[in-house]
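Students often ask why we bother encoding 3D structure as a string. The short answer is that it lets us treat folding as translation between two languages. Here is a chain of 175 residues written in the first language.
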Amino acid sequence: MTRDPDFKADLSRYPPRSFLREQSIWAIFVYRRGRRLLKQRPGHLRSFQLKLHSLVFRLTETITGISLPIEANIGPGLRIYHFGNIFVHHHAFIGRNCTLRQGVTIGNLGEEGPVPKIGDDVEFGAYAQVFGGVRIGNGARIGALSVVLTDVPPGATVFGNPARILPPSANQNTS
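And here it is in the second language, the structure alphabet:
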């Protein structure tokens, strides 16, 4: 279906024939298409395609409530459950095989401020918020409604506002 290995990795985390049933895949498709356009040689055709992409991005963002700007660096295997109210800062970095749920925000604390760097295999609960120049380690889990303002070590589970690291025994019992 696609020659883009990143989008193929995204699709592999969705059920078969999800394009018609999962609106989140529309936003991911538009994001991946935009990233491919950025890799093309500069010229009139690329310029036209980027303007067209901008219109399609805004339309998709409005319909799905998911904002994945092409300037953001998002690794392959992105999975979005329960689309809506998902905003990723245009300078954010998200690793491979990450999972976002509805209401997730990944952004900065102020204009021109630093943005989060998310590791691989990170899961975000519904309405989790991550702000500032924090680093989220590989395999971390961000609980629903959590507000993360400090670094999260690899494999840790955080929860609360402000987010606190749960003890290791609690990490094993939360799935």
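Translate back mentally: The chain has a mean pLDDT of 93. Keep this in mind for the problem set.
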